[in-house]
Write the structure tokens for this entry.
Amino acid sequence: MSGLIEITLGIMTAVGGFVDISELVFAAQAGSRFGFALIWVFAFSTIGIACFGEMSGRVATIAKQPVFNLMRQRLGLRIGLPTLIVSSVVNTITCAAEIGGTALVLRLLTGWPYAALAVLSTLFLMAVIWLLPFKWIERSFGLLGLVMISFAVATASIHPDWGDVASGLIPQIPKSLPVKDLVVFAYFVVAIISAVMFPYETYFYSSGGIEENWKPKDLKVNLLTTTVGFGLGSLLAIAILINSAVLFRTAHIDPQMPGTVALQVAIPFGATGLLLALFGMLFAISGAAVETGLSTAYSVAQFFGWEWGRYKRPHEAPRFTIAWIITFLVALAIVLTGIEPLELVEWSIVFSIVVLPLTYLPLLLIANDRKYMGEHINGRLSNGIGWTFYGMLVIAAIAALPLYFITSGGQA
Amino acid sequence: MSFKVISLVLLSGGAACSLAQADDLSDIRAIRSLTAEGSQVIRLAAQHRLTAAYARAMKQEARDQLVAELQAAKSNRVKMLAGEAIDALDKNDAGALGQIALRLFAMEGPHERAD
């Protein structure tokens, strides 16, 4: 019975923790710009993140190796160190975007000044990490993030044409679009892949496996969390896209403000729906801020072989503790410069995809190494999906920066 | 699939020229959406379907972004439309905002449906 509860909680946490500010923004913009034509990219990327998430959890369980430990071992210092630096920069920018998003949502709830809310929310999130054990941090934000289900309820209530929605699951490049819009479409494909497969997700997930001291018996929970949990979480992002296609596209809205996304629940359910949407966004985005902040500290500590983990008291892993505190303070400083959270999201998306191939290569290599993994090495399915996605990620990484500049971050 | 993505990247080189010519297109898109978002917020707030704090913050955010667009815009046409949108927002005029959004949408050129 306790096993079933554990599995259910793991899945629910994964569902509630799946969506962050980048998925909110890109799902909403994708729906308003291209209708249902980009649903397949969300579905497709979810298979990728489920595959790599499962692999990272399995490697953490069996080989007791988190991602950045592997990176140093497999890629060496010459490639590993630049990867660490870029990953840390990306994580910090992403953390800033999430803190900015949290402050924006709080402003929509309270009307208080944005800068003050950014400072208060950063201090609150740091206090949460300092005081709560890992499991509580992960579960509380993940479970509270389930309020995001209000977006899926809104989808059901606005009665989209489900046939059209289903057709969006078929991989497609719309033929009727003018060339300039096709390039923007390509940018959205790359951006959605990056948003769904953000590298911090595997850093955090695999580090969590070690924090919680997973044993081989936990591999079933790992598999269900990454497949069912991430799959259902992805449905929330797809619901936002569908709502956007139905409610915003006809009103000529390409959401320029993150708060606009909450209208998707306000339109069918009024002020109560609006509050549910805002609270769901608040928990999902602030949860992602915690994950990105901790991920930077995990990466640096694992790479340099420092003591790390929230299962230790802060003074028992001092350099790890200092690393996450610095990450939050730098992220807050970025927010206070006045850069818009949406601009930060754009940058984090573009640079994340550049880092992704370097993140997943050592993972794929070690998951295929019998010396580390024994009987738990990758099967044909994991390898097939893993290497196929790896090839796609390399192509997406090459295309990301040119597409970003040519399309002015998808605006052109 | 990969071939198509590569083709699009190559295609994007050519597209860059035409996008550069239409240098105010992204400004028009942004102003059109902000105007439409403002219109929607005012309309829903009038129906008591939004909280007061949300409606106030969203209108202020839309106004700030429209002012930024007005200051950054190079073409007089874009400046004029951003100015009109700010006036309509200040007057809480959802109808006028909706009309401006429609005009801006038409100015963007052909819109083929992707879905």
